[in-house]
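Why does residue order matter? Because the sequence determines the fold. Keep that principle in mind as you read this record.
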Amino acid sequence: MLDLFVQGFGRLAAVAASALRVSLILAVAVMLSSIVLQVVMRYVLGNTLSWTEELAILMFAWLTLGGLALGVYEGFHVRLDLLISYLPPVLRLVAEKAIGILTIAFGGYMAWSGERFFDMTRGSISAAIGYPIEFLHGLAPVAGALICLFAINGLFAAPRPDAEPDLAP
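Structure:
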């Protein structure tokens, strides 16, 4: 029964990670297009657009927070494992699980505090585009929830075949 739950949870995390990857690719495209448009308008045509910078900032915020969550799923964050690599296998596993639990706590705090900030700023609109500011401030709780999802998945998942091999002595 637990195996079915873990498999289902793993599938949910994989689907969420795939959707996150697509959204990050789209955010890069939108951000770069917005910046190029802003430069062309300012320096070639001598006329600035009021909304391009704000759109680029919104996309950059999603890239930062979404990339943080994707890093938890794929394990591509920079880390120092100098101490962990010298631990015996059992203690290394305990340390890795402790790091996973701390990551869940961080994601939970990010989701909770982000939701509080989202709630406090509800009803505001952005200056240039006029979109509801909840789009920007809602990114932190979403990213925090994704961090929790991916970290919980990491606690129960078997090592991934494409992960780097452990080269510790």
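The first helix runs from residue 2 to 44.
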